[in-house]
Every structure is written in structure tokens, then in C-alpha cells.
């Protein structure tokens, strides 16, 4: 039986009923296929692909075209999963009109169900414009990697009273602007709990505690594929990097020693063709 694809209304119902929403990033066909098979309710094609796929130092260099290509691949792999496209840096900062144009590209070319964009009070006009265009919007506050340079790096937010006030004000402004869901990153669970209780829209956490409506993790962190660093909030469920490296080492050793390929890995001449083949070889002598 095919998995049922959920909608925004389903997520609202889950919030009301106290059911947790599961969300994971994916950037390619195989991992998206695995995510759907695992019963993941949402997939984010995140701009974190800049680091996890392309090896950039951060998310800023990621382009719209890169995001669209990865969204297409993920959609093909997970047709029955709610997919979110992550608007990259520079795709919505210039104007409301450009934000709507790029958000629409995610739907028309990337086949996503919603878009996510970073920022709070300062981007409410962008959110409102995209929502008015008929597009589902997910806000993102707290630690916002695209603007991490303004806060001195990837640092947790909301850990002082003044900082917590700003995070809460961002959350309220985003809901008022019409966003359908909200992602809170790297803030204290006390702040997240208040926001989740205050807002009527689903509030999801990445490194912001369990007192909300669901969780997001980066797939490369979850499976142990990204080795540059592991954030404090990550629970690693596998060590894929070790498995892959050991498999490749085994391949190198077998090729060097002659253990691979074996006869069972080869395609032999069709029975009855042997004599003709010998004659063919003589013709080249």
C-alpha cells in the first residue's frame, strides 16, 4: 500500500492532537527514497547541500539552479512525501517580487510542496507576498546560517532575556505574516516551548529541544556521512562514512591482490561460439 502524502492541514491536525512531525533533509534520489520508505513525513531539500554535497564552507554560495536540480531528484524518489525547497541566500533578499518569482520556480521546476526561508521581523513582507501568491511558506528563526556572519558564526540564539525576546518577536511576526509552519534552530527548549504553545501553526525544532511539534535533522549528520563536524544537537544513528570507507578499502585491496574480479563476475562467450572466436583471433595474428 502506497504511503499517504500529507498536507499542511494534516500537520495542523497533528499539532492539535499532539503527534510529532518527522522532518529530514535530503539532496538526492537514494536518500529521498530511503526517507520515504522509512515513513518520513517531510523532506527538506536544504541549502545545507552546499556543505554536505558540494563541499562549500557554508550555505551562502548555493544557487537557485542547484537547489532546483536537487528538488527534482528528491521529488522523483519520494512522490508521496511533503517536500520543502530551501530558498538560498540572495533568492529573496532583494525584493518581494523577486522572492515570489524564485519561490514559484521551486514549485514549477522543483515540484516541491512548500518553501522555507530564513529570517523574522525583517522579512515579513517577503513571507506575506509569497503566501499571497498561493505558496505554502515555512519560516526559519533562531540560528539562521545564511546570516551567521552578523552574529559571529553558528551560535545558539535566545540564551539571554534580550535575545529570547527577539526570537519570540520573530516567531509572532512570522505567524502574523501568514506563514504555515515555523522552524526554530539552536535556541533553548524553554523558548521553543513558549513559541510552540503561543503559535497556532506547527513549530518544528532543529537543535531547539523537544517541546514543540516536530523535529528536523540533516541526513548527513543523522547517518554519519558528514565528517567535518557534528553539531551538539545531533543524534547519529549510523556511521555511514566508516562503512563506505571500509568498503572502498576492501575494493582497493582485492583489485591489487587479484581477488577481484572472480570468475562469477565475468561474462563468458556464448556456448558454441568458442571455435569461431579462436578463428577470429587468428585472423588478427
Can you offer a commentary on this structure?
By secondary structure, this protein is of the alpha/beta class. The protein has two domains: 8-238, TIM Barrel, CATH 3.20.20.60; 243-283, no CATH class. 42% of the residues lie in helices and 13% in strands. The protein has helices spanning 8-17, 29-37, 49-52, 64-77, 96-110, 124-132, 161-176, 189-198, 219-222, 240-257, 274-283; strands at 21-25, 42-45, 82-86, 114-118, 137-142, 181-185, 203-206, 214-217. An eight-stranded parallel beta barrel has the order 1-2-3-4-5-6-7-8, surrounded by six helices. Strand 6, helix 8 and strand 7 form a beta-alpha-beta unit. Helix 4 (64-77) runs parallel beside helix 5 (96-110). The radius of gyration is 24 Å and the shape is elongated.
What's this entry about, in short?
The protein is α/β, with parallel strands linked by helices. It has helices at residues 8-17, 29-37, 49-52, 64-77, 96-110, 124-132, 161-176, 189-198, 219-222, 240-257, 274-283, and strands spanning 21-25, 42-45, 82-86, 114-118, 137-142, 181-185, 203-206, 214-217. The chain is elongated, with a radius of gyration of 24 Å.
Amino acid at each position: 500500500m502506497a504511503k499517504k502524502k500529507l498536507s499542511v492541514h494534516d500537520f495542523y491536525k497533528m499539532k492539535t492532537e499532539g503527534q510529532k512531525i518527522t522532518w529530514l533533509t535530503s539532496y538526492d534520489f537514494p536518500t529521498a527514497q530511503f526517507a520515504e520508505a522509512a515513513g518520513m513525513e517531510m523532506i527538506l531539500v536544504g541549502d545545507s547541500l552546499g556543505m554536505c554535497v558540494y563541499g562549500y564552507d557554508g550555505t551562502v554560495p548555493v544557487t537557485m539552479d542547484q537547489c532546483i536540480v536537487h528538488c527534482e531528484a528528491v521529488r522523483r524518489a519520494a512522490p508521496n512525501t511533503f517536500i520543502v525547497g530551501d530558498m538560498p541566500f540572495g533568492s529573496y533578499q532583494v525584493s518581494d517580487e523577486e522572492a515570489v518569482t524564485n519561490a514559484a520556480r521551486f514549485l514549477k521546476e522543483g515540484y516541491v510542496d512548500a518553501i522555507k526561508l530564513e529570517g523574522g521581523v525583517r522579512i515579513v513582507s517577503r513571507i506575506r507576498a509569497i503566501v499571497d501568491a498561493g505558496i505554502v511558506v515555512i519560516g526559519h528563526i533562531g540560528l539562521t546560517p545564511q546570516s551567521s556572519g552578523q552574529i559571529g558564526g553558528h551560535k545558539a540564539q535566545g540564551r539571554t532575556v534580550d535575545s529570547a525576546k527577539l526570537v519570540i518577536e520573530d516567531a509572532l511576526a512570522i505567524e502574523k505574516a501568514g506563514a504555515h509552519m515555523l522552524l526554530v534552530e539552536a535556541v533553548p527548549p524553554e523558548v521553543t516551548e513558549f513559541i510552540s504553545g503561543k503559535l497556532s501553526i506547527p513549530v518544528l525544532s532543529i537543535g531547539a529541544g523537544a517541546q514543540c511539534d516536530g523535529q528536523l535533522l540533516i541526513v548527513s549528520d543523522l547517518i554519519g556521512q558528514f565528517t567535518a563536524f557534528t553539531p551538539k544537537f545531533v543524534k547519529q544513528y549510523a556511521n555511514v562514512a566508516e562503512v563506505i570507507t571500509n568498503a572502498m578499502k576492501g575494493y582497493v585491496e582485492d583489485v591489487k591482490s587479484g581477488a577481484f574480479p572472480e570468475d562469477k563476475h565475468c561474462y563468458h562467450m556464448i556456448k558454441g561460439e568458442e571455435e569461431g572466436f579462436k578463428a577470429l583471433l587468428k585472423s588478427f595474428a
